[in-house]
């Protein structure tokens, strides 16, 4: 496909769901209107701009590439209503409205972190809308199904249940048990937290399978990262990933909504289980699926844990790639990731 301009444009979708409140989804778009549609769905914390390098890459190759500010982020509606951020509300309300706004009936869906939970929910509930599914770090069949979808898959050699009941997901339980105070911790210095969160992941030691990530002991410590507040921007020495317009826009997006709405994604495990769980929903996925393992991701550990097992059992046409990066694989290794996704799509969708 010919190279072309990749300027990002802004768009807005309005929709109602459940309580008839008029909500909006803001999204960035690039590439030809008639190109194959690829939708990038961010996680926590995130916003549409964190997919900048993917939007530009795929638009330049003829795709219609879009990325929404998910509900609770950036320019999208960000109410302090926890149920707005259940998988049901996100999919049946926001994602179906977004897809309809493009004038298409199906897309290539790419999700990262909680965004992978959303893309997995779309594939579960509306498989006809998914030409191909690409999940980064969080496999299909896990986080979108509530606690039962991922807690039993913790590596108990690393996290014995007697000492680490919730394994590396201890921070999620912290959100459930102490939500307002946990949100307040982040909001003491949002730019400082985001600069820390956006630091490149260093290569772990050779025995990293025995490294205990700090997210496994949050409730015991009482504070995240062992401190009463996030570090200030000037206290974080390294340059953040996407330093410049990407990072600055991202910080502005999070400051616009605060932490509460995005953090409320962690308050819906029961609702998500009711929506996606149960044997009747454990259908096989027949569309092509690509899963990208981030080799250095100690929280969403798919290399030494059993977290990828439900995906492998459910996907009829599964491709797996491993990239040497931490959790923010799309920001740490954008060229490697983009090439892997493009190679997968060329092999699976050529001529379809």
From TrEMBL:
It comes from Aspergillus lucknowensis. It holds the Pfam family Abhydrolase_1. GO terms for molecular function: hydrolase activity. This is Alpha/Beta hydrolase protein. The keyword Nucleotide-binding does not apply. The lineage of its organism: Eukaryota, Fungi, Dikarya, Ascomycota, Pezizomycotina. It comes from the Eukaryota. Belongs to the AB hydrolase superfamily. Epoxide hydrolase family. The keyword Transmembrane does not apply.
């Amino acid at each position: 496909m010919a190279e072309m301009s990749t300027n990002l444009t802004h768009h807005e979708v309005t929709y109602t769901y459940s309580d008839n409140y008029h909500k909006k989804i803001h999204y960035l778009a690039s590439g030809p209107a008639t190109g194959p549609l690829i939708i990038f769905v961010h996680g926590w914390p995130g916003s549409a701009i964190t997919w900048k390098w993917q939007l530009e890459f795929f638009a330049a190759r003829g795709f219609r590439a879009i990325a929404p500010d998910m509900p609770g982020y950036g320019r999208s509606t960000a109410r302090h209503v926890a149920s707005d951020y259940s998988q049901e509300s996100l999919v049946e309300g926001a994602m179906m409205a977004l897809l309809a706004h493009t004038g298409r009936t199906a897309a290539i869906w790419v999700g990262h972190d909680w965004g992978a939970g959303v893309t997995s929910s779309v594939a579960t509930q509306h498989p006809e809308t998914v030409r191909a599914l690409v999940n980064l770090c969080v496999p299909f069949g896990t986080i979108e199904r509530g606690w039962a979808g991922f807690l039993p898959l913790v590596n108990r050699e690393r996290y014995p249940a007697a000492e680490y009941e919730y394994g590396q997901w201890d921070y999620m339980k912290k959100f459930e048990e102490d939500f307002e105070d946990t949100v307040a911790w982040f909001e003491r210095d949002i730019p400082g937290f985001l600069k820390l969160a956006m630091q490149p992941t260093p290569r772990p030691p050779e025995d990293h399978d025995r490294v205990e990530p700090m997210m496994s002991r949050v409730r015991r410590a009482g504070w995240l990262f062992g401190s009463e507040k996030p570090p200030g921007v000037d206290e974080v020495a390294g340059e953040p990933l996407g330093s410049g317009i990407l990072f600055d826009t991202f910080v502005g997006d999070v400051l616009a909504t605060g932490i509460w709405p995005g953090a409320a994604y962690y308050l819906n495990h029961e609702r998500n289980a009711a929506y996606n769980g149960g044997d009747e929903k454990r259908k096989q996925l027949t569309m092509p699926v690509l899963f990208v393992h981030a080799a250095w991701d100690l929280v969403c550990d798919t290399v030494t844990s059993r977290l990828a097992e439900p995906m492998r059992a459910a996907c009829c046409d599964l491709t797996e790639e491993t990239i040497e990066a931490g959790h923010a694989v799309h920001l740490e290794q954008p060229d490697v990731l983009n090439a892997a996704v493009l190679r997968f799509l060329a092999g699976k969708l050529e001529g379809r």
